[in-house]
Design a protein that fits this description.
The structure is a homodimer. The first copy, chain A, is of the alpha/beta class. The first copy, chain A, has 14 helices and 18 strands. The first copy, chain A, has two domains: 103 residues, Roll (Urease, subunit C, domain 1), CATH 2.30.40; 289 residues, Metal-dependent hydrolases (TIM Barrel), CATH 3.20.20.140. In chain A, strands 1, 2, 3, 4, 5, 15, 16, 17 and 18 form a nine-stranded mixed beta sheet that branches. In chain A, strands 6, 7, 8, 9, 10, 11, 12, 13 and 14 form a nine-stranded parallel beta sheet that branches. In chain A, helix 11 crosses helix 13.
Amino acid sequence: MAESLYNNQDIREETLLIIKNAMVLSIDSQSNYWEQASIVIRGNTIESVGKIDVAEEKYPGARVIDGSGKLVMPGLVNTHTHVPMTIFRGYADDLPLHEWLYEYIFPIESEFVNAENVKLGTRLAIAEMLRSGTTTFNDMYYFVDEIARVVDATGMRAVLSEGLIDFAAPNSPTPEHGMRLSEQLINRWSNHPRVTISVSVHAPYTSSAKLIQDAKKLADRYGVPFNIHLAETRKEFDESLDRTGFTPVGYLESLGVLGANLIAAHSVHLTPEDIELYAQRGVSVAHNPECNMKLASGVAPVPALLAKGVKVGFGTDGVASNNNLDLFEEINTAAMLHKLNSNDPTVLDAKTVIEMATIGGARVLGLDKEIGSLEPGKRADLIILDMKQPHAHPVYNIYSLLVYSMKGSDVETVIIDGRVVMENRKFMYLDEEGLYAKAEEVAAKIKERGLELSVLNGKKNLHQS
Amino acid sequence: MAESLYNNQDIREETLLIIKNAMVLSIDSQSNYWEQASIVIRGNTIESVGKIDVAEEKYPGARVIDGSGKLVMPGLVNTHTHVPMTIFRGYADDLPLHEWLYEYIFPIESEFVNAENVKLGTRLAIAEMLRSGTTTFNDMYYFVDEIARVVDATGMRAVLSEGLIDFAAPNSPTPEHGMRLSEQLINRWSNHPRVTISVSVHAPYTSSAKLIQDAKKLADRYGVPFNIHLAETRKEFDESLDRTGFTPVGYLESLGVLGANLIAAHSVHLTPEDIELYAQRGVSVAHNPECNMKLASGVAPVPALLAKGVKVGFGTDGVASNNNLDLFEEINTAAMLHKLNSNDPTVLDAKTVIEMATIGGARVLGLDKEIGSLEPGKRADLIILDMKQPHAHPVYNIYSLLVYSMKGSDVETVIIDGRVVMENRKFMYLDEEGLYAKAEEVAAKIKERGLELSVLNGKKNLHQS
């Protein structure tokens, strides 16, 4: 086993940070909400939270953040995304899925996905996630070592995986190579306080039965999450029935890979039997409502999944199909979408939605012992929202306000693992303007190549100027 | 005819304002978009726009706004809302429509809708709309003279109407009184540069045939818009068939009130014949996708309406059922919703959506000669967006970026009728913090009364602490 690169030296244990006089939403098992409360953070851990005495003499040397007019809550958890794709934001929109993927995304990915661009896209994505209140994300892509280094450097928390697939990946000529790479990464990053390496296969229709089973074994061996895109489109569902005689979920059951570490992204097209299988095997779902709407894939049966006790968290998917990483937007859309789809305005009530976006997402990632709520002993992953906004008034019910009225842009300060990584919307570990300039520079090249490809293939050029 | 209260003295004709070096999206008939351009505003009017020479010596005394790293576009048009209801934001959520309306909203409205609270709610709503890029709204409520005074004082543009109904309204004991009031208001505000008074009846199921016909005549007489809630729910559709033998739209046709000044809010449940009638009569639609989703009312057939050439704009409806007034959110949701609902990711492409939110909304309100695009001779209603945001990069297609990635919170500066009403997110004519304190003060009383009512009626109290 390779030696671990990183140790938990990010935050010294004696570091003391206090947030006082804030509205605090805990998402703990008692659903505590205080209109005025404080939080004491020692090192990377929450020491106490609630109506506690934080007099200066009790905490000498503490750094104090005044929370007046602000709301503190756990950071949001994005359970499914592909952060390096941020450089392709808006590259190809309003197209049928197949044309979008095969004629626009795949050709441009094959030319521009390299270590440098992966780091750039990851930085841009982390900037966007911090700005909109996400403190943990679960990613599937390529060049994961590079992604992990950016996560390490920016103070973010992430679960990262190489997307194993039956073809050559940009950084992996064969799936066997990808598998070895995944194992190396698991070991290399095993002691990092904020990085978890997991295992992913792309989808049942792009990966052999053997690859899926081997990947699952690898995930089991190391006790890490196992990700797959599953039952995303009607086409996938129908072709699975044709090809295997099973639904996509039934096919994975036949391979023996459904289990409590499986995170099934999308899970739009499920039969009642599929839902039952998820419940029995403890499978989790990463629900990406905006991507599913935008690509016209369908609506995941979230109320039915929740009714069976299946763990469901929210994901944004990659920005090439969303086109943003703002989970506040995603939860607002989800709360409305399922009311419409169920013809029942009581489903996915605001409290359920906020729990799904925090502790629920943490459960999906197997991190609920560490994050997802503000409780003593948990890692200090929290966001501070500015309530001095017209849409933040009046407050009748804090969950309703958060889901239906507030926005990612209300997030002012972000603390991850006890460390302030964004303060008053300023990034501590990211050069914002340099990042935007660099993104536009790379985009100019991609745009130029896109124009060439569109001429070459007789396709419409989707870009301007 | 009563004397008009106001004259166009807001902006002196010699006032000169120049925005230079900005990205400019015109929404003109040539779909002009410049990556670097300027706009000259004289008095309340756009004098020139595009790649023009704005050298200082040509415009002595002009105030110059540096548009570097910013995007200028027409302000958004909200074609349907009830701004005073902002004080009820989040009062009752996640409930069936009938319970929401009859057991929560109506009882509390009957006690708290008065001139003072209407002014408060309107101020809070205008603050929220300016912050998220709306420069014109179309409202139906009560105490319209009070609403108009707030619009006048805050620099906003609005089309306002008393909601005529067969019952006693808070400021009108009978519909006849309401009708006289509407006419008085039309005359009183007739010369105001930013206020248009229109005529509204609440809905076919709350207003007699005579009231609907009289209101339509009044609107025709003064050449102002005529608003109605129409075909919002399946219940309304079914009951209309039972009661009148017609669909809601067919019923209005039988009354002879369908016409080019009619703005039919919602229009969710339409038959192909209804859509044909809309097209023939030139009826406009105010489409409120988020409200319709949240209350599980259904999805308006917007692609079919557009295909027939029906004018469609976006509305937020009131915040009691949305719960915000952010049109950027609304258009993002709409673009995704219709792709899902049509099972076709090409419908409501980004350019169509942006046009609907600007010039399209202006057409719905009969104001497209004055607003909705950045063209010489038009009123200067425009918004300046900050592009120094992670989600604003990279830019491949400006329409896609605006619809799928950017947010209301990116709006930094707002100009209405040539006047800067919000600059760098600071309001020129609103006391922001006083507003929030007052909103919470009124909400505390509403909350207290809500608790009493819930005890009295054996209902669940939906609020906290």
